[in-house]
Amino acid sequence: MTSREKTGIMKNLAPLLALLLTVGLLPRSANAQEQRGYIDLSQVEAWFDDEPAIEVNIRGALLNLVAEASKYEDPDLADMLRQLKVIQVRGFDLSRADDTLLSQSTELGRQLEADGWETVVRVRDDGEHVQMYLLATGESIDGMVVLATDEFEDEAIFVNIVGEIRPDQIGRIGRKFNLGVLESN
Fold first, then answer.
1. pTM beyond 0.85, yes or no
2. Domain limits of the chain?
């Protein structure tokens, strides 16, 4: 993710952050970790010595606010956002990461697979590594995880989306929140 894209994320989220500061921070849902499709990204944060360069936590009332704000611009996106429970993103500067990141990311992927997540995308191409996992119940997708690193851009992005996910709408989520790693899907 380029600094322009990072700035774009902050521009898109600035009104929401201002609202949060005005009304006070929303508490995390007590049962967020019990929701099917949720993963605790603190385990990913532990891989790095620094705080994430990008940290997005949208859930509950805030997610409903984003859906409501989107309804005139993109009603289909608003309907889809109402079906979601959590959107989490962490972005890290790889220039400060150690050499174990790829093995840690691969191990997390193995854990997800052992927990019933399905690998739908795995790309290992010249310094770019992308893994995408879906957790489904029958025909319904309950969660998605994307682990992406780009050694040339010196960045790593981790995304977890929880709720009823329609595969044809994933790119819309990426565009709404300026998440390049999701936009092409």
1. no
2. 3-179
